[in-house]
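Colleagues,

Please find the record for the three-part complex below.
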Amino acid sequence: MGFLDIKNATKSYGPVRVLHETDISVEEGEFLVLVGPSGCGKSTLLNMIAGLEDVTSGEIAIRGRRMNEVRPADRNIAMVFQSYALYPNMNVAQNMAFGLEMHGVPKAERDKAVKDVAELLQITPLLNRKPGQLSGGQRQRVAMGRALVRQPDVFLFDEPLSNLDAKLRVDMRTEIKKLHQKLKTTIVYVTHDQIEALTLSTRIAVMYGGYVQQLGTPKEIYDNPANMFVAGFMGSPSMNLFPAKVELENGQAAARISLVDGKSAILPFAPGNAMASQEGRKIILGIRPEAITDEDGADRNSQAIHKLESVVEVTEPAGSDTFVVTQLGGKEVTARFRADVEVRPGDSFPFAVNMEKAVAFDPETEMRISG
Amino acid sequence: MATAAATTNAGAGSAQVIRTGAGSRYVIYTLLILFCLYYLLPLYVMVVNSLKPLSEIQAGGMMALPDALTFAPWASAWSSAQVGVEATGLRPYFLNSILMVVPAVAISTVLGALNGYVLTKWRFRGDTIVFGLLLFGCFIPFQMVLIPMARMLGLMGIAGTVPGLVFVHLVYGIGFSTLYFRNYYQQFPTELVRAAMIDGAGFFTIFRRIMLPSSGPIAVVCIIWQFTNIWNDFLFGASFSDFDSQPMTVALNNLVQSSTGVKEYNVHFAGAIMAALPTLFVYIVAGRFFVRGLMAGSVKG
Amino acid sequence: MSVSETSGRAGRADWLRDALPKLVLSPSFALVLIFVYGFIVFTFYLSFTDSRILPSFGLVGWQNYTRLFSLRAWDIAVKNVLIFGSLYILICCVLGLALAILLDQKIRAEGFIRTIYLYPMALSFIVTGTAWKWFLDPGIGLEAVVRSWGWTSFEFDWIKSSDMAIYTIVIAAVWQTSGFVMAMFLAGLRGIDNEVMKAAQIDGASNWALYRRIVIPQLRPAFMSAFVVLAHMAIKSYDLIIALTGGGPGTATELPATFMYSYTFTRNQMGIGAASATIMLMAIAAIMVPYLWSELREKK
């Protein structure tokens, strides 16, 4: 049993099931991110934890206590909303103290708590202002302050950064991470931004179509996606997915892929990969852009770098790197080159593929073939 | 509501794009001013003729300014003219109207605010149907309820009294009050209500501490609409009041229609202005809200 | 919902908390249910009874309706409401649209002019009726004034004429409401995306074409609202007739609303009055129900 347990929870609106049986157990101090495209059920799940939506079946428990019938106010949670949801008629200090006031905390204690949190978040000069007089970033801080003051068991964040501009979003992300490391609070955080998910979380639940597709640490999710959805959704640019066929090459498993000119190439899997037993099977090969590079840019520690000639279609210089698009297996594939590599569209160019980082999926079920 | 708000936002919309030449602008201004005269004409007639002796009107001088300025018609309309059977002037009826309007407006606004809050922030299955039924109640021809209402007021012991009129206006005013607050609260972010729920606030605390402080504008719209409507009502007043509980509109009509004696047009005009003054006053000081109310009653969503 | 862990008292508190919003709404709902829908049923029922001076419950079938339709007074009332309603709606819409377009030309003092156009809407129909009644009265009003200016053959006695009196009602009603219709159209004009207009202008559209082809077609919702509001006001018109003509001369300006009132309360024909009220309700419902339905349907 964890600190926050979601046991077999489902949610339906009439006949429509928006969240299928979900089991997640969150430990104290964990930072769980629910990530997925809109409509995937992540906000519904968060609202169910908050008590803003009923649980259709299953159970939500905090510290071992069943919460399904408990009012939001009595769950000892706090929530930071996408729109910040600051009470427009109250100033910052009143906004922060409102929850404590509702829970019958005496005025002196409230003032002290507000003062402490305001100092922590460096918003003391704002305490007498109304929300309408604050910038987006300041509102964001106040919203977090309002949550922190309550000292809740669990913090819930509903896309808290999505209303900020790009620069501020990165700054606030770092700030939230620092805050979590300092206060060791338990956080459930909803976002559609996979970078936020990877940078902030201790664990990620990738959701799609009302199902948790994969639950794991950021590294697990990134390196070993459970299926093609997770592979495609997490990481930017997203993982290259293209058809291949498993063959035996000198007794070792290898993937044969077709090239543009009707030829084909063979890419041996890393030694010890269990794909040998899959000979003849059609697969979808998944390789991230940073595992397809120019020769000099290849990972020197890898035991399975293989070269491949292919025609460059487009180059996209991105400052620190250059993304190079080519065709493999009939699909567009993005490779990540060092910025100073001389490469022009139309050139035939040697690509270095790091097969240690390659994963294989079943084309029918789209699930990863564990190797 | 969104379109209504745009009314006051001059310069938006098609005006930004259309260019008109100097010649056509001359025509446009002329037309606009002519229509100003058309709309002001009856008001002019009422004011001018309420300030002149009857003889000047009878001599065909209705459009002329008073030769001999007099306030006697006003004094007569207010306190001594023959209204129905008694020569009391309109004063007691003016008071009746105030006694009728104030509680009816207050209660229906409070109920409307609560209903709008429930219908937007505490939604339940079938809430739209409930709202639709409430709303349709304001649009029915009230002839449909006159007969049973007369009986019901009798049963309740408030037939022919001001409280009876308050009750009638309250019942048939709820729909509009609810409409205003519902449309307004629909725009009010639900996340604020959710935040307050998590903070531990209950139904009434959220209403009082979160919703009400932001409800000023719509409360003004609702109060003005109800005030204007109830003050200006004639049908209910004519149907459900006795001589001593008649509202201003009914009394004015009695004054004007009384068939005995000489028709004192100047007194009639003075009385008409008296009946119009409260709503005109509200319109002039808070016209923006009045228009918003009118629009919300027709252009919804 | 399981309440196994909560005591009976807490259970009741929970129930109260959950039911509170509905409890708050219920007095209003109950009032409307009784005083609107209950009463509608009651009046509808009366329209099938032999009620005369007081409600009576002897059923007479469709007799009130057949008698109603054979009454000349009802015939006049229906004809009048059709004439009045169609002219009222047409003139208000044309005038309202014209004024809105004129006012939308970046007019100086627009707010002031708008205030003047709209103020009649704040007045009681009784006040409006009184003002127009004497202004249109041939003895002292417009006719007398013009004659006193020297045009001695000038005639304007519509209000005293059985054939023309109904048009004086249109004049007064248009005066009262057209400013409001103007405001509705103006709001519609202000809501039009002006990039579309810029595009049309670059395409070479003249101002006239711009309005006819781009702007007015986009005002369809405003037309819809105006029609519904005006039609509903026309059917319910009562106060204005009472104040302006009292239904006369004779019965020349009776409308269904005045017909119902006089048959029910002065002629003691409550059954017929109830039948006429029922028909008014049907007419209003035919306009309002589809409108409310389309407005309230969840826009997802």
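Residues 1-7 of chain C have pLDDT under 50 and may be disordered.

Comments are welcome before we finalize the supplementary table.
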